[in-house]
Structures are given as structure tokens and as C-alpha cells.
Write a structure and sequence with these properties.
The structure holds two protein chains of two kinds. Chain A has 21 helices and 29 strands. Chain A is an alpha+beta fold. Chain A has a seven-stranded mixed beta sheet. Chain A has a six-stranded mixed beta sheet with strand order 7-15-14-13-8-29, sandwiched between helices. Chain A has a four-stranded mixed beta sheet with strand order 18-26-27-28, sandwiched between helices. Chain B is an alpha+beta fold. A five-stranded antiparallel beta sheet of chain B has the order 4-5-10-6-7. In chain B, strands 11-12-13-14 form a four-stranded antiparallel beta sheet, with helices on both faces. Chain B has a three-stranded parallel beta sheet with strand order 1-3-2, with helices on one face. The radius of gyration of chain B is 19 Å and the shape is globular. The chains are: A alpha+beta, B alpha+beta.
């Protein structure tokens, strides 16, 4: 994005709250306004139209009438609720002048008490962030089966508390947005959003402009991961500024802003309980979850809380379940979805519970999992629970069979033997597993068009977006297959709201299935038309024709034939008109998704601990998934490995910590550690295609997030195994100091000091 | 993350640099490789009115050996140390230490002098220089002086350099015979500032007992530390697990590492102790090998 330079462009700098909770007493912008090179200074009072970013849909607002009061203001009006919250925007000649001028803005605050813990925020005495609304913006309760009865008759009752820290997507390029207002046409052109259509619609509404007057265009945005999605306040600000100044205005976030103002994710505490019979069969699970949502609800609302509580039971045969999640505001950076939201956290809690249960019951954890994993005999598994507005229905596959196959392929029993031999030799080596269920393909519909350019190119448009995941390749493959061409013949266009007027976007591992479904449908319609037109041109029945290598001919005889290109060319205006048909060759399609799909798999790890330091070294790492049908093996592998690396980051390195008075402690890459190539082991990926999903024509499951999900669970389990004190790692990330604290290291230090 | 305004000079001679430092004193900052100063400027944590760049002073980028010592020009890139065969032979400790500095890109730009004057107690080169009893050659309009390593490092990001003085070179004695070195550190990720570390240089007498020990601690306090008590415990002893353990315990007895998000002080102390013990044992083993 930052490479886009427009003539006459100005730079915007945002003045952010440096206190976590305060009433704004006064804002003095006079000095900044008069500084040389400054064109505009905006405060909340200067914004016309709506001043708060609305939720993406009213689905949650209907359930939680006070949710609106938790939504994020574009600029703070009378109070600030987290460090990093935008308060004033300064537009100047260039980023240097803008940053200098931003320092001249004087804001007087009257500080208020802070609340930094989701459970504490529910106390009666806790300060309210958005009075009179409660800090509990939403609470979801999900339940099926007779949980109390199950616990009453259970042979074993296991309870534990698990925590997952605060992470974020942290894209390589921070956020940014450019707005260029054309007063003559009353049109606003923007670059920088990921979900261009939804962002266009919301922004137009906030600016009180027709949606057709706002054009978002795609550019390479250096990573999305969910964190980048949605309409951020800064995008609204550049739009306001450009409209006011009638000049292009660019805002590019710096890394320090990125770490406090781009949405965070995760941070959940689970108090999870399991009821088991004497054979280790799960009778029921209860989970009470506190989800720290930060200071405001972003556009996605409490979606991640909803997904979390809906998916705690994962790929297991759990006959009764009761989950409650408190979705709570605190004086920290707001949250949104980040790769496998809710599944990384919930899988950590559940898999840890199963490890605990195995010890308590006296079964190998492997056996405990095997007794409980869903098999094809359980399908369709529809226990009566809702996940993010649809009923959970797991209808294809056999998790136990995949589990056995994956572990055998990985050679997991050899790992275990190897680890045991090393432990016997005095080394702290351990193995661990996590099993996961994902959900993919949320998001209703997607659009596509196929247009055959007679000069030898097929153009596909899609409402989805490339965020580096290989969307262009996948859609080109799907369309080329239908048209019997090569992917090189196909170009994929996306992310321009004028070229592609409607779409949903790329998130929730949906693009291959849903954008792919739309492209497939448009391609099939195109083939149908090609056959119909060829039949007309060749004067034969369409039923006698076949399409091969981009040419249509009568079955059994290669000539006469017409290429796809010839058909498109012949069917230009006059000929089509004579036939009373639409000219050209191509079709539009909208794929409406009936149901989410549910990939599943395993993460397995072997690692070593240096107990004196708490240092962790990977020996082996493998992860598997059931993909239904793989469209592109390399893209699949890339997605799974990339996600696994982010999972390792969350398990070992990444955490946004805050001081007791609410100041963020991780504001540079010295404090917020991302895994680098050196810190990540070689990751083996094992993909099965044993259970093509019946729910979509491609038979595919979305695998964009699967790699991240069980990483934390598997690593924690392996740490316990290495230390020979099973069931002790309760919190992620597992920093060296925390691993050290799990060992007998303290005693060693004392011994050393004697 | 754009720096505030400053005036920029990039003179061609040391004399001109010294005049500028004389003129601007505290208001000026010297820019060498920029690996610490530029981030500080961008974060607006440093706001010097004047930047004096040394980029044209190519004469300060030198590495030579004379009279039993290496002379390392202040502008010598860290990567040059890493790749120098002279250094590998004559001062293996510096070479070992420099490999832990950041990442290759950082070492390509970062200079030896820059790392020394920045005086980060968690930085590798200052600790190695303290262990090696390096001598710092400093010039100003008033003349030149030599400062011992122990005098040079004063505290957190503080040296005994006056505002009008420029570090021009560092002199390091070449490694004596029957001596072994080791540099050990533990960081959360490769290239991060260490949670704790230690450098050791051990010399043995012909009987195999320790005849000299120099031990430095990394990220253990306000400045790179010499563990004097540990050194005296080792002299006259054989280097083995017992003596190394005793020396490491003495080394950390009085240290108070700074806590941060990556580890509290007590934990960091443990790390320093472990690194110290390992460095002593490894340096002892290397010395034994050198003696054989």
C-alpha cells in the first residue's frame, strides 16, 4: 500500500490516547493547526455523520441490545478507554511534519480507574467502560444433553483452568489507507481495505454518500490473518480528510501503532470440567469462559466468543455439554478475529483437559482420545448446538480413522520410543498431541464472473480477495479445468468495487469453497453456453458435442471443431443478435453456501527442554488435516505451514502484556516476539482426502486456518511429557521463564548459590 | 515513527568531527552504523539537535595487528569482525561474541565503536571488551586519551566519554597461549537481546591449573560486569564442574538483572549463573585443548 503515491498527496497522523481510561477534559489543537505544513486537524466534534463504527450486521445487536454502546468511536468524544485509541487526526504535507504537529496537540485527561482482567471486570465494583452498559457486552450459553446427570453418575470428574494470552495477526506491512476525493464526480477512491465490499458499504453509510460513490481498490496489503479485516477508524478519518481538503490523503500505520491499535485477539480463560466413566468415555463437558474483548467491540462484534463456546467439544463424542462465555470489555486494545479464532483457545483448554483426565483416570492420553473421537458411525453428528448462527452438523469423515492414519504416517510411536530413550539417558525430551476440529466457509455467498476474451484469455472476477493465500491460482485452476484450458489462460480480477460490484471477501477459510464454488458455477454456465453456441454454429445437436483441450467438436470426430476463443469471437454482436441471444461468451454466478464445512486433524510435536534455563528446542513437528479435496497441494501445504508457525508463535512467543496501570508493555518487536525462520522447526504436513464434503460441488474443506489450531495444545502436552510432570502447563505462551518455573529449576539455583 | 528535525553533518576528517562535537557538545549525537541510534530517533526517544555522521571517515574502518594487540577502528563493521581470519586467530572471544549480535543485516551495518559507546549492558561486544581488558582510544579538540574497559563502561547506556570526545579505535590484547575462551548466552529467539549470558577467558599453567581467569556477565546489571570474585575463586584451581559451579555462584551473588516482559530479575539471575558456569567449563576445555 505504501508504494502508492498520488499527486498532491498529504499525510495523516493520529494522536492516540496515552492513558488507558480517562475522561477528556479538553483538547487544544490551536498550536498544531497553525504549524507550518498542517492542512487540517480533526477532532470528534469535526466529524459529520455517524461517529461510531457500527457492527457488520445487526445479528448480534438484536440479541444484545446494549452492544451498540460498546462500539468503537472514530475519534474519542468524551472519554478514552485504551492506550492507542484515536483522539485527534492531523493532516500535513508529509509524515514528518504530521508527526511533529501531532506532538503539539494538547489533551487534558482526568484519569479513571482501569480494569484489565475479564473476570474482574464483572465485579459489581468494577469501573464501567461504557456506562450505564455492563462490561459484559455479550454472554452466550450453549447447552445440550443432561449435563448435571452426567456429572452425578461420572466415575471421574476433572476440573482445571487454562489461559491463552493476547496475540495478534501482525502482518508484515502495517495497516494503511489512502483516500482520494474527486469533487467533480462526488466520488471517493480508496485503497487499503481487505474486505472491500463490506468496507465500502459501511464507509459510504458513515460518510452519508451513495455506496456507488465510494470505490475501494485492491493492493497488496502484506498479510491479513483476520486482524486486518473490517472498517477501522483511521479509514473513516482519511476519507473525511480527503473530502474536506479535496486532496488525496494517505495514512500508513507505524509498527508502534500497529501493536496497540490494530485489533488483538485470543486472551481467554477457561474453567473447564469433564465427566468421564471408568473407561475414559466422556459423559459431559462444562466450560465457563472469560473472553477479554478489550475496550470496544469491533465490527465483528462478539462473533469470536460465539464461535468459541460453540466449538469446545471439538471432534469428540460428547453426549452432554454446557458452555458459558462472558464477552467482556476491559481497558485494552479491542479484539477481533485472528486465524482460527476461538478454536486455538478452546482446543488448548479441551486437549489439556483430556491430558489431565488421562492422568487422573490412569489411561494413556492416546487411548483416552481414541475412545472418544468421532467415527463415521456417529455421523451425521448433530448434537443440537449452534455455532455462529447455524446449527452444528458434522456430516463427513471419520476423525478416529484420520487420527490413526496421521499418527502412523508421522511415525508417532517411533517418536515416543525415541523420546523415552532420551529421557532414560537423562534428557528432558517429550512428545505431545493435539486433535482439532475446524469450521470453514462462514459467510453466506460469493460472486464470480467468467468472460472469455476472444483474443485468448479468460478473465475471472471474484468477490473474494487475495491476501497472499494463492486465491488467483486456485480460481484459475478451477475455471481452467472446466473450460479444459490451462491455468495460464486464466486471469483473476478481484478487489475493485467498480469492477466487481458485489462480494463478501476472504476470511473464515472460505475462499476455495465459496469463491471457488461461484467460479465453478460461472465456468460451468460458460461451458453450457459454449456448447449451445457451438451447436448453433456447427449445426449439430449440443448433446453430440464434447469439449476437449479448449475445443468443441462432435464426439468421436475431432473435426470440424471450434475453439473456445472462436466461439467467443463468432458470438459477437450481430450473430448473437440474429439468434436472439446475449453476445459474447461468459457467465455470472453467485454461490450460496448451504452449510459450513468441518476439517479436522492432528498436531504432533517432539521437543526438548533445558530445565536449567526453561529453553525449548523442537526435535520434530508434524501436522495433518482432512481436506476433503485438495485443489492445489503446494498452496495447501503453504497455508498449513504458515498457520502452524503462527500457532508456535502463540504457544511460545507472542503476548501483549500490560502494566498494572494499563500501559501496554509490548509496543515494539523487542517486546512482542514473532517466531522467525530460525525458531521454527521443519514442519511436516500430512493431508488426507478421505472425506470429500457432500456440502459443496468442489468437495473441498477450507484449510486456511487448520495449522494453527492444535499447536498450543500439542506443545504444552509435549512440555509436560518432557518434564515428566504431566498436566502442568496451563497457560500460553510458554515463555522460558514459565517453563523454568515448571521444572525444579528454582531448587537448582539455590543449590548453585550455596 | 519519523524522527523529529535535526541538523545533519557528514564531515570528511576526524578533526572536523571533533570541531563539531566541540561546538555542539550535548546537543550532538554521532551516527555510525545507526543500528541503535536510528530506531531511537524514529521512536523519538532521542532528540538530538545535530547528527554528526561518520560515514566518510573510512580511515576509522580498520583492523590491524601490532605489538601483541589488535587495533580495531571504531567504524569497523561487526560483520568485518565476524569474517576476519586475523580476529579468529588473535581474538577468538570477540569473534565468538560478535556472532550473537542481532542478525546478519544488523552486523553488516553495525559498528564495533557504535556498540561500545551505546553501552547496552545486554550487548555482546561490551562484555567481551571488558573481559579482554580492551583499551579505548578517544580523541577531542583537547587531545587524546586512553580509557580502560572497566573505566569506559559506567552504567546503563553510559560511558565515560565526554560529549566532545570521539571514540576512534579499540585496542585488544591478542589472546595468550594456553588460553581458552567461551561466550554463552540464552535469548528467547536467535538474535534477541540475551536473557543472560557470560564470556570467559581461562589460562592454564603447565600443571593444568588455572593461572588466569577473566569472566564477564551479560545483561546482569547496569553495565557489562567483570565477575571478579568468580575469577579469584578459579585461579589456582582446576577447571571442573565443582570449581565452575562455585565461581558461577559467586558471580551472581550480588547481581540484580533488570526485569522486563521476558523475565524477572530472579529468573535472569539463574540464566546468568548457568551461562557463567557453562562458559567457564567450555573455556577451560578450550584451554586444555590449546595446551595439548
Amino acid at each position: 500500500l505504501d508504494d502508492i503515491e498520488l499527486a498532491g498527496q498529504l499525510a495523516m497522523r493520529v494522536v492516540r490516547a496515552d492513558v488507558p481510561h480517562a475522561r477528556i477534559v479538553s483538547i487544544d489543537v490551536a498550536e498544531a493547526q497553525h504549524a507550518a505544513g498542517v492542512h487540517l486537524v480533526l477532532t470528534a466534534a469535526d466529524l459529520e455523520g455517524p461517529r461510531v463504527i457500527p457492527l457488520r450486521t445487526d445479528y448480534y445487536a438484536k440479541q444484545f441490545p446494549h452492544l451498540g454502546e460498546h462500539c468503537h468511536p472514530v475519534l474519542a468524544q468524551d472519554r478514552v478507554c485504551y492506550v492507542g485509541q484515536p483522539v485527534v487526526a492531523v493532516v500535513a504535507d508529509d509524515p514528518y511534519v504530521a508527526e511533529d504537529a501531532a506532538e503539539l496537540v494538547r489533551i487534558e485527561y482526568e484519569e479513571l480507574p482501569v480494569v484489565l482482567d475479564a473476570a474482574a471486570a464483572l465485579d459489581d465494583e468494577a469501573p464501567l467502560l461504557h456506562p450505564p452498559a455492563s462490561n459484559e457486552g455479550a454472554r452466550f450459553e450453549r447447552r445440550y444433553g443432561d449435563v448435571d446427570a452426567a456429572f452425578d453418575k461420572a466415575e471421574h470428574h476433572v476440573v482445571a483452568e487454562f489461559r491463552v494470552g493476547r496475540h495478534a495477526g501482525v502482518p508484515l506491512e502495517p495497516r494503511g489507507c489512502i483516500a482520494d476525493y474527486d469533487a467533480g464526480r462526488d466520488q471517493l477512491s480508496l485503497w487499503g481495505a481487505v474486505h472491500v465490499h463490506n468496507t465500502r458499504d459501511l464507509l459510504a453509510d458513515m460518510l452519508e454518500m451513495p455506496r456507488s460513490s465510494v470505490r475501494f481498490r485492491q493492493c497488496d496489503i502484506g498479510g491479513s490473518f483476520g486482524s486486518r479485516g473490517g472498517l477501522y477508524p483511521e479509514y473513516v478519518l482519511v476519507a473525511h480528510a480527503s473530502r474536506a481538503l479535496k486532496r488525496p490523503v494517505k495514512w500508513v500505520e507505524d509498527r508502534r501503532e500497529n501493536l496497540v491499535a490494530t485489533s488483538h485477539a485470543r486472551e481467554q480463560t477457561h474453567r473447564i470440567e469433564g465427566a468421564f466413566d471408568s473407561n475414559g468415555r466422556i459423559l459431559a463437558i462444562r466450560d465457563e469462559i472469560w473472553h477479554d474483548k478489550g475496550a470496544y467491540y469491533r465490527q465483528s462484534g462478539p462473533l469470536v466468543s460465539d464461535i468459541t463456546v460453540g466449538m469446545i467439544c471439538g471432534p469428540y463424542r460428547v453426549p452432554a455439554y454446557h458452555g458459558v462465555i462472558h464477552s467482556v470489555t476491559t481497558n485494552k486494545t479491542p479484539m477481533t478475529a485472528y486465524r482460527a479464532p476461538g478454536r486455538f483457545e478452546g482446543t488448548f483448554a479441551r486437549e489439556r483437559l483430556l491430558d489431565h483426565a488421562a492422568i487422573q483416570i490412569g489411561l494413556p492420553s492416546d487411548e483416552l482420545r481414541r475412545v472418544n473421537l468421532l467415527t463415521h458411525e456417529d455421523l451425521p453428528w448433530e448434537p443440537g448446538i449452534e455455532i455462529a448462527s447455524e446449527s452444528f452438523r458434522f456430516d463427513s469423515g471419520d476423525v478416529l480413522a484420520h487420527y490413526d492414519k496421521a499418527l502412523s504416517q508421522i511415525g508417532y510411536s517411533d517418536w515416543r520410543r525415541e523420546a523415552e530413550a532420551l529421557r532414560n539417558a537423562g534428557r528432558c525430551v517429550g512428545t505431545g498431541l493435539g486433535v482439532y476440529l475446524d469450521k470453514a466457509g462462514l459467510g453466506v455467498y460469493e460472486t464470480a464472473t467468467v468472460w472469455v476474451d476472444p483474443r485468448g484469455r479468460v478473465r475471472v472476477t471474484t468477490g473474494a480477495q487475495s491476501v497472499g493465500q494463492g486465491l488467483e491460482t486456485i480460481l484459475a485452476q478451477i475455471v481452467a479445468d472446466e473450460l479444459t484450458l490451462t491455468p495460464q489462460d486464466v486471469e483473476v480480477v478481484y478487489g475493485d468495487t467498480d469492477l466487481v460490484p458485489d462480494g463478501v471477501g476472504s476470511w473464515s477459510s472460505r475462499s476455495t469453497v465459496i469463491a471457488g464454488g461461484a467460479a465453478l458455477d460461472a465456468a460451468r454456465k460458460t461451458v453450457q453456453k459454449a456448447l449451445r453456441v457451438a451447436a448453433d454454429l456447427l449445426e449439430v445437436s449440443p448433446n453430440d458435442l464434447v469439449l476437449e483441450s479448449g475445443r468443441i467438436h462432435v464426439a468421436g470426430s475431432s473435426e470440424p471443431s471450434l475453439s473456445i476463443w472462436q466461439i467467443a469471437d463468432e458470438w459477437a454482436g450481430p450473430r448473437a443478435r440474429l439468434a436472439g441471444d446475449e453476445p459474447g461468451l461468459g457467465a455470472a454466478a453467485t454461490y450460496i453456501d448451504g452449510h459450513m464445512n468441518y476439517p479436522y486433524g492432528v498436531a504432533a510435536v517432539m521437543l526438548e527442554i533445558d530445565p536449567e534455563l526453561g529453553r525449548l528446542v523442537f526435535h520434530r513437528y508434524a501436522t495433518s488435516c482432512e481436506a476433503g479435496r485438495v485443489i492445489n497441494p503446494e498452496a495447501t501445504r503453504g497455508q498449513v505451514i504458515g498457520a502452524a508457525v503462527q500457532g508456535i508463535g502463540g504457544a511460545l512467543f507472542e503476548d501483549f502484556l500490560y502494566s498494572q496501570d494499563g500501559q501496554p508493555l509490548a509496543t515494539t518487536f523487542i517486546d512482542y516476539l514473532l517466531p522467525t525462520a530460525v525458531d521454527v522447526p521443519s514442519i511436516d504436513v500430512f493431508v488426507t482426502e478421505d472425506a470429500p464434503t457432500p456440502d459443496n460441488p468442489l468437495r473441498a474443506k477450507g484449510i486456511g486456518e487448520v495449522g494453527v489450531i492444535a499447536a498450543g495444545a500439542a506443545i504444552a502436552s509435549a512440555v509436560d511429557d518432557a518434564l515428566g510432570a504431566r498436566g502442568v502447563a496451563r497457560k500460553l505462551p510458554l515463555t522460558p521463564q514459565q517453563i523454568y518455573a515448571l521444572t525444579a529449576g528454582r531448587a537448582k539455583l539455590e543449590e548453585l548459590q550455596e | 515513527m519519523k524522527p523529529p528535525k535535526f541538523d545533519y553533518f557528514d564531515p570528511e576528517t576526524v578533526e572536523e568531527v571533533l570541531s563539531l562535537l566541540h561546538e555542539y557538545g550535548d546537543d550532538a549525537k554521532v551516527l555510525a552504523g545507526g543500528q541503535s541510534l536510528v530506531p531511537l530517533l524514529n521512536l523519538r526517544l532521542a532528540r538530538p539537535a545535530v547528527i554528526v555522521s561518520l560515514r566518510r571517515l573510512t580511515s576509522l574502518d580498520e583492523l590491524s595487528e601490532a605489538n601483541g594487540a589488535l587495533r580495531i577502528g571504531a567504524l569497523t563493521r561487526q560483520a568485518t569482525l565476524e569474517r576476519s581470519s586475523v580476529l579468529a586467530r588473535r581474538s577468538p572471544l570477540l569473534r565468538e561474541a560478535v556472532r550473537y549480535v542481532g542478525h546478519p543485516q544488523i552486523r553488516n551495518r553495525g559498528t564495533v565503536g557504535g556498540s561500545a559507546v551505546h553501552a547496552d549492558p545486554a550487548a555482546e561486544l561490551p562484555t567481551a571488551l571488558v573481559v579482554l581488558d580492551a583499551v579505548f582510544h578517544v580523541e577531542s579538540r583537547h587531545g587524546s586519551r586512553r580509557i580502560s574497559a572497566r573505566e569506559f563502561f559506567r552504567g546503563y547506556f553510559t560511558t565515560s566519554l565526554a560529549p566532545d570526545e570521539l571514540l576512534v579505535a579499540i585496542e585488544v590484547p591478542t589472546q595468550p597461549k594456553m588460553t581458552g575462551i567461551a561466550f554463552e548466552e540464552f535469548a528467547r529467539r536467535a538474535g534477541d537481546f540475551a536473557l543472560g549470558g557470560a564470556a570467559a577467558m581461562i589460562s592454564l599453567d603447565p600443571t593444568g591449573a588455572c593461572s588466569g581467569a577473566a569472566i564477564g556477565l551479560l545483561a546482569a546489571g547496569p553495565a557489562p560486569l567483570r565477575a571478579v570474585d568468580a575469577e579469584s575463586i578459579l585461579v589456582g584451581q582446576r577447571i571442573n564442574l565443582d570449581s565452575a559451579r562455585a565461581a558461577a555462584a559467586a558471580a551472581v551473588a550480588d547481581i540484580k538483572p533488570l526485569a522486563d516482559v521476558h523475565g524477572d530479575s530472579a529468573y535472569r539471575r539463574t540464566v546468568v549463573a548457568a551461562m557463567c558456569r557453562r562458559a567457564i567449563l567450555n573455556a577451560g576445555a578450550a584451554a586444555t585443548e590449546a595446551a595439548a
